[in-house]
Amino acid sequence: MGFQAFLGRVLFSAVFLSAGINKAQELWSNGGVQTMQYMKPKLDALAVQLAETVGQAAPLATLAQYYQYLLVAACVMEIVGPLMFMLGSDHGARIMALFLAGVTPIMHNFWNAQGMEKMIEMIMFMKNVSMLGALLMYLGMKSDKSKKEKED
Known about the structure:
The protein is globular, with a radius of gyration of 18 Å. It is an all-alpha fold. The chain has six helices and no strands. The two termini are about 20 Å apart.
């Protein structure tokens, strides 16, 4: 069971690790221009929605200067979390779950898209939700196992 569990963690983590490495390579080669072109409209839309909810104007120009820090944080979470998870750390699973919980509704907001983009974003949204569910299930099973071991 040990090798099988390790292999499962490696295969699961591959999606995050490859995305994180690709983002990091782009970030260091050209400042993440292509990724930022994808992120900026999504983050701007979030800022506008939050501003409308709160009842204040969204200072998009001020917020936009911090978007690159979010990209760096995403790279770190997508690289460190999977590496820790591969090695059996629950903290790695928590990092990936936190990443998915934060990124999924912002970056894959299919409800604001049209046509083929809507379908693609919905597929990506559902993929991320299912991966989040798998991580929560993993953490829950680990927690239950720890509780049973303490009782014995």
